[in-house]
Amino acid sequence: MFRSLCIVSVGLAGLTLCVLTCRGEEEAKKPDCVFVGTPNDVVAKMIEMASITKDDKVCDPGCGDARMVVAAARAHGCQGIGYEIDPDRIAEAKALIKKRKVENLVRIESKDIFTVDYRENTVILMYLLPNMILKLVPQFEQLKPGSRIVAHNYPIGGVEPTKEIEFKSNEDNVSHTLYLYVTPLKKATN
Ligand SMILES: C[S@@+](CC[C@H](N)C(=O)[O-])C[C@H]1O[C@@H](n2cnc3c(N)ncnc32)[C@H](O)[C@@H]1O
Known about the structure:
By secondary structure, this protein is an alpha/beta fold. It has helices at residues 2-27, 40-49, 67-76, 87-99, 130-140; strands spanning 57-61, 79-84, 106-110, 123-126, 148-152, 163-168, 175-182. Helices cover 37% and strands 21% of the residues.
């Protein structure tokens, strides 16, 4: 009897350890790129290109300190959601939301951007690396027709932009390329 109880206890302890280890691994997923903030005047230009209104649901996959969704909410009173997995950035994002008093409009979720369902969003504002953007294309293809995606510096590979502009930032004195896509996404011809 005592021996059986010991075997069951050891088994349960092992199972618990395994579950905790697996959860620990899940939570420890590292960001696929480092944080580099988009200058605020470039963010404002992206918001203008996306023709955002108060009825839009704006999303920034890999939101960093949430400057894009916060700026969109402040400018147009729209809802915003940012996805981020770096705990330090999430803390900064939450602080900015509070500082700019947009808690009623903007929220941050600690989620890997590759696991998100974006279908409820009508606008995507993003600054991600080309390989990350490519991986998100199947999710973006599910957006409602007429949704807008604005990408900073890196385009969506293999997709024809609706509009492409160069914008010189007064903050860093650098020219930034901005790409607008209106869904459904159109395959590039070359
Ligand atoms: C280049 S920064 C852009 C930040 C912000 N969108 C901006 O333009 O100011 C990219 C952000 O994506 C986050 N990131 C990278 N991989 C991610 C992933 N798999 N899931 C969620 N966030 C991720 C990084 O932590 C970083 O803050």
